[in-house]
Design goal:
heterodimer, A: alpha/beta, Elongation Factor Tu (Ef-tu), domain 3, Rossmann fold, 2 domains, seven-stranded antiparallel beta sheet, seven-stranded mixed beta sheet, B: alpha/beta, TIM Barrel, eight-stranded parallel beta sheet, four-stranded antiparallel beta sheet, 16 strands, 30% helix, globular
Chain lengths: 256, 301
């Protein structure tokens, strides 16, 4: 059951340039949350009305806490970055479907993150009942790599070659001659498009977490649709709602 | 004992709080947050005779105190709507107003005819969507076209007809009078204000459609003014909307002359807004010793 609640900031740290890590104490959201889901975070100022969808980086169900790792890209996230321990923030969640963790049981799974698509892969790796192979792509500065190493085998790609493979996540997979039974991915569209093709070539299922500008976050407004390959049962057209039907889709279900 | 009931063309709402078309789907998603039976009515997202895919994304953008949308009336078409959405809404003790859209008079009429045998209470005819190229607002910016489409719809409608008016006109009272002359049972206003946002970093439009409809608290004073003007001009009930987020906002519209109100964009930043507004209106009535909500309609002086 989705709820909107006032969460208390436990801590906030800047972990790389423009990348912030925010731990929140929730009343109900964390207890129900799954890897690959997201929350809508609201600004407190009354001028910025629409919630910002942010993926879940870590979920502690016992403590009722959530970790959000996000990039400052505008006024809303600038306000979030100013939050300090003890402050409160309105959060709606948990939202979306999350990764199909059951299907990954006993399998070797590529968990692939690109840029600000890296954070949701941490909780996914921690909860995966299989063999996670983390492949993380960065422009230059690394973040969350210490936590990722503890969660599984970690391979890194950087655009500038400052760490790991110089290039993208697929370059890292090829350079290290890695193989897996399926893919869970989150990141920019060109990366998802390439991974969809890689999945088809290697005949392994590829699940991608999509991103789109959102308003309601719960499936009512149809603001955040993506194009589907077949007519969707709910919409009756070739559109699926990223916030409600996704954000995670089988790559062959969606146009990339 | 307070009485929050209001009447729109013979349809009694338990309270004046409805939802604004396009912001609430057919109520399924928000029924996780609010009991739809606490609402005077649910107004559905616009439905056409066949499924519409809507516009490309990005479809939404934030503005200060509001937002722009250019969804483009994506909808599943009337057949699926009748099979799936109406039965869902019928499980709740609330009135159903179906918003009807089309590219042409014939398309509107096909939907209205189809709905004649369905258990819905009111029809809202969307002649004011700014985000589709044909139909929509094209019918709502010319008084002759407003009167004609209203008359055509009335001929085939089994339910009372509410014409939804656009604020993107020189004088909205002209359009309201045209709707009344065509036989409309009520009018609803305002639809969104046409706007634009430009992403200066990328030097491009924030919306794929370039323009979008502006809504949210920032448009409220414009909407209240228009409701007041229309209330002075016609003798049919008004459903008022435009930036309502609190009970005080809703009461402004009622005092300006609205019989009922619709809550739209507020759902996006407060999914409990509709019920909180209904409760807030009751509290206001207790605080001011007002027995009948109808005593407040148009009571501004």
């Amino acid at each position: 059951m989705k709820v909107k609640e006032k969460c208390i900031v436990i801590s906030q740290d800047c972990i790389a340039k423009d990348i912030y890590s925010l731990w929140l104490k929730t009343d109900k959201i964390a207890a129900q949350a799954r890897p690959g889901q997201f929350v809508s975070v609201y600004c407190n100022d009354g001028g910025h009305l629409l919630p910002r969808p942010i993926s879940l980086c870590e979920i502690n169900q016992e403590k009722g806490t959530l970790r959000l790792v996000y990039r400052v890209v505008g006024k809303g996230t600038e306000m979030f970055a100013a939050l300090k321990a003890g402050d409160s923030v309105e959060v709606l969640g948990p939202l979306g479907n999350g990764f199909p963790m059951e299907e990954a049981e006993g399998k070797r799974v590529f968990l692939i993150g690109g840029g600000i698509g890296v954070p949701p892969m941490l909780e996914t790796a921690k909860q995966l009942k299989g063999e996670p192979v983390l492949v993380m792509g960065y422009r230059d500065e690394l973040f969350l790599t210490d936590e990722m190493k503890k969660a599984g085998e970690l391979v890194i790609a950087t655009e500038d070659g400052s760490a790991g493979t110089k290039g993208n996540v697929l370059d890292a997979i090829r350079e290290n001659d890695l193989k897996a039974d399926m893919i869970f991915a989150c990141g920019p569209k060109p990366m998802l498009r390439a991974l969809k093709a890689y999945g088809l070539e290697n005949n392994i299922p590829c699940y991608v977490s999509m991103e789109e500008r959102m308003a309601c976050g719960v499936g009512a407004c149809l603001g955040c649709v993506c194009q589907s390959t077949e007519v969707d049962d709910h919409s009756q057209v070739k559109n699926k709602r990223v916030c409600k039907d996704g954000p995670v889709f089988l790559s062959t279900e969606v146009e990339l | 004992m307070i009485d929050t009931r209001v009447n729109i063309a013979g349809v009694e709402l338990k309270n004046p709080v409805m939802t604004a078309s396009g912001t609430f789907g057919s109520g399924m998603e928000y029924s996780e947050f609010v009991d739809l039976s606490r609402l005077g009515g649910v107004v559905t997202k616009g439905v056409a005779d066949v499924p519409w895919p809507g516009n490309p994304t990005p479809r939404v953008a934030e503005t200060t105190g509001g937002m722009l949308n250019a969804i483009g009336l994506q909808n599943p078409g009337i057949d699926v709507f009748c099979k799936r959405d109406i039965p869902f809404l019928k499980q709740h003790d609330t009135k159903i107003m179906v918003n009807v859209c089309g590219h042409s008079t014939e398309e509107y009429l096909r939907v209205v005819e189809r709905l004649a045998s369905e258990p819905v209470d009111l029809l809202e005819i969307n002649i004011s969507c700014p985000n589709v190229k044909e139909g929509g607002i094209a019918f709502g910016q010319d008084p002759k076209a407003v009167e004609t489409i209203t008359r055509e719809v009335k001929k085939v409608a089994a339910q009372p007809v509410v014409m939804k008016l656009s604020p993107n006109v020189t004088d909205i009272t002209v359009m309201a009078r045209a709707a009344e002359a065509g036989g409309a049972d009520a009018v609803s206003l305002i639809n969104t204000l046409t706007g634009m946002k430009i992403d200066v970093e990328r030097q491009t439009f924030a919306l794929a459609n370039k323009t979008g409809g502006m809504s949210g608290p920032a448009v409220k004073p414009v909407a209240v003014r228009m409701v007041y003007q229309v209330a002075q001009s016609v003798n049919i009930p008004i459903i008022g909307m435009g930036g309502i987020a609190t009970a005080e906002d809703a009461l402004e519209f009622i005092l300006a002359g609205a019989t009922a109100v619709s809550v739209g964009t507020a759902n996006f930043f407060n999914p409990y807004a509709t019920v909180e507004i209904a409760e807030g209106i009751e509290n206001y009535m207790k605080r001011h010793n007002i027995e009948k909500l109808t005593d407040l309609i148009g009571a501004v002086h």
